[in-house]
Amino acid sequence: MNNIFKKLKISLVIVGIVVGVGYLANNGINNIEKDNTNESINNSNEVLLSKLDKEILQYEDMESDYKELEYLEGILNNQYFILINKDNKLDKSYVPSNLKKSEAKFLDYAQDNNLENATADAAKKMFDAAAQDGISLIGVSGYRSYSVQKGLYETRIEKNGEEKTRAYTAEPGASEHQSGLAIDILCDEYQTLDEGFEDTDAFRWLTENCYKYGFILRYLKGKEDITGYNYEPWHFRYIGNEEVAKDIMNRGLVFEEYINEVKNKINDLKK
């Protein structure tokens, strides 16, 4: 498609040259004796070039729109950009094909320390970078199978009731942990999964740096009506694109909001 735009621009330039030469051939010689010959030719050429410039700009705008469309569609088609929530569930048979045990530090008793391959590598880099800044991060939970999530959900329903459970715990199939792309993170100084984690240096470091490794804070305070879950300062999601992760974090968006933005821009460009 980019080659098509280049060919169109080249064709327009050639057409302009041919037309200009034709004008000189047909009109320039016949008017050679007239005093206003040069002025007439120059004016005609200026009109021609003005039209040509407009045509080139028009095609350049089309090329720019196409590049933006290509970029946005590439974001949505990224394998790490999958939206998982109460309305977009994974099949119970879904298991990531490239799970591996994370080399990032996890709680000693944590059993869910597997992550999708790229997520595991990014988490290790993030934990190492935090350590260099004096922050000791600890993984609490990584990949959870559909059956494990089902057992967890049902146990919490029995213990806490449906309303409270649904506010924090995903139904089987609706958990990002099943994708292997999510990790719950705490630190040496604070090892309880509650909102108190937001008062730690570890949380502040994560919110300022997680995007550098392709992660976003998934469930924000004040966005419960969009995500369907209460605020979770410990739950981070890998999306793979550091530029997009930075944009999401800087603007205080949740994943659903960003995806809707991208879809709306795509629809506008296709009109």
Key features?
271 residues; alpha+beta; Muramoyl-pentapeptide Carboxypeptidase, domain 2; 2 domains; 4-stranded antiparallel sheet; 6 strands; 53% helix; elongated; transmembrane helix; DD-CPase-like
Structure description:
- Helices cover 53% and strands 11% of the residues.
- The chain has 271 residues and is of the alpha+beta class.
- It folds into 2 domains: 75 residues; 172 residues, 2-Layer Sandwich (Muramoyl-pentapeptide Carboxypeptidase, domain 2).
- The strands form 2 sheets. It has a 4-stranded antiparallel beta sheet. It has a two-stranded antiparallel sheet with strand order 1-2.
- Keywords: Membrane, Transmembrane, Transmembrane helix.
- This is M15 family metallopeptidase.
- InterPro entries: DD-CPase-like, VanY-like_core_dom, VanY/YodJ_core_dom, Zn_M74/Hedgehog-like.
Our measurement of the CA-to-CA distance between the termini, rounded to an integer number of angstroms, reads: 18 Å
Taking the sheet with the most strands, its summary is:
4 strands, antiparallel
Question: In what order do the strands lie side by side in the largest sheet?
Answer: 3-4-6-5
- Choose one word for the global shape: elongated
The CATH topology annotation of the largest domain reads as Muramoyl-pentapeptide Carboxypeptidase, domain 2
Helicity level: 40-55%
Task: Give the SSE order as H and E letters.
Answer: HHEEHEHHEHEHEHH
CATH architecture of the largest domain: 2-Layer Sandwich
Please give the radius of gyration in angstroms.
Answer: 29 Å
Mean pLDDT: 85
Percentage of residues in strands: 5-15%
The parts where pLDDT drops under 50 for at least 5 residues are 4-9, 12-19, 21-25
What top-tier CATH class of the largest domain fits best?
Alpha Beta
Number of strands: 6
- Assign the structural class, choosing from mainly alpha, mainly beta, alpha/beta, alpha+beta, or little secondary structure: alpha+beta
